[in-house]
Write a structure and sequence with these properties.
This protein is 55% helix and 11% strand. The chain has 357 residues and is α/β, with parallel strands linked by helices.
Length: 357
């Protein structure tokens, strides 16, 4: 099985899903962690998977929003249970499940004042991390998200910084978390942090915005996201190397599914193999697992200098970050809105059906 070969090459493989069926099969495939998002719950909801539980929660008087968070928390807790043996075996270096804080804090339609959003991130980070050993709190690299990191890290919250597209974001997040970590009452023994670098979205962006990049194979087009992620991986390696911490502070390579027509299904998996974490879509993990392919360490290998020079010359990283963060925050908030709307419709159907009996 290629997933186990990928793990053998040095990659920790996580699933970009907490769907119970995916999580149940994960340990046998070598998958050692996962992350949650509203879309997963919405998909299960469509199939009627939560009808009985939603009826109970409605009877308890919960709002549509409260039901959404109850379901998310329940799925994440079950995934945590499955991966707890990994967490215990690695002494806290692996086996985590990421819990995403309220995406509506980044709603561009109904923006929240910066200070209020920061305080809310801190409040929710405390709430949803309490009592959980192998739960990571997922916070976006937005202005409000970044400004909440030092406080939460200082209180011992294990953080996954998500929606990272640039070295600027990564450095701000890393430095804030490190400042906070050094204030932890219990020291650095259990300190763990990860930084989710989104890869394929960058290449979708450059295909649209920079059609003048040299073409694959061998050209810069389709390599910008990989180069961007590998450079941040190297920065992360260098920063933490001298800290002599008990646990690894790692990069998560996120957004790793095939996006462009000419790419292979494991295009990003192969290019980023060999270190840290890949959070892959279930379909990507399934494809890799079904093919008997050997993976070798590629994460520290960059394209030729002429390709790197072309990328640096043509791609404005600040403009890229701005565009992708605008898209990213919209993709962040919209699924949560859709989930709560879907729960409202499910409520109407269940209550109406009960009344008709």
């Amino acid at each position: 099985m290629s997933l186990k070969q990928l793990v053998a090459a040095g990659t920790k493989v996580w699933s970009d899903s907490v769907d119970p069926e995916v999580i149940k099969a994960a340990p046998g495939k070598g998958i050692s962690g996962a992350t949650s998002n509203p879309i997963i719950i919405a998909d299960i909801l469509k199939g009627g998977g939560f009808d009985e539980k939603i009826s109970e929660l409605i009877d308890q008087g919960l709002s549509d929003s409260d039901i959404a968070w109850w379901l998310d928390d329940d799925l994440v807790k079950e995934a945590q249970r499955v991966f707890m043996p990994v967490w215990e075996k690695t002494k806290g270096n692996d086996g985590y499940v990421s819990f995403e804080l309220d995406p509506l804090l980044e709603d561009i339609v109904k923006p929240i004042p910066h200070r209020q959003a920061v305080e809310r991130y801190i409040e929710l980070g405390r709430k949803w991390s309490k009592g959980h050993q192998n739960r990571m709190i997922k916070i976006p690299a937005t202005p409000a998200g970044l400004d909440s990191l030092e406080t939460l890290a200082g209180e011992g919250v294990t953080i996954n910084v998500t929606l990272c597209f640039s070295e600027r974001q990564y450095k701000l997040a890393r430095d804030a978390i490190w400042r906070g970590a050094q204030k932890r009452k219990n020291g650095l023994e259990g300190f763990k942090s990860v930084y989710s670098i989104f890869v394929s979205r960058v290449d979708v962006y450059t295909q649209k915005s920079h059609p003048d990049l040299s073409k694959p194979p061998g050209g810069a087009q389709g390599l910008v996201g990989i180069v961007n992620a590998k450079r941040m991986w190297r920065m992360n390696q260098d920063f933490w190397a001298g800290k002599k911490l008990p646990l690894q502070q790692e990069i998560i390579f996120a957004s790793t599914g095939k996006k462009l027509d000419w790419q292979s299904e494991d295009y990003y998996v192969e290019a980023l193999a060999g270190s840290d974490i890949q959070t892959n879509p279930p379909a990507t993990n399934d494809w890799v697992d079904a093919h008997d392919k050997a993976y070798t360490r590629q994460v520290d290998k960059l394209p030729p200098k002429e390709v790197l020079d072309e990328i640096d010359r043509k791609v404005d990283v600040n403009a890229m970050e701005k565009t992708l963060m605008e898209e990213g925050t919209r993709k962040f908030a919209d699924p949560q809105k859709a989930l709560e709307t879907q729960i409202g419709k499910k409520r109407a159907a269940l209550v109406g059906g009960a009344g008709a009996k």
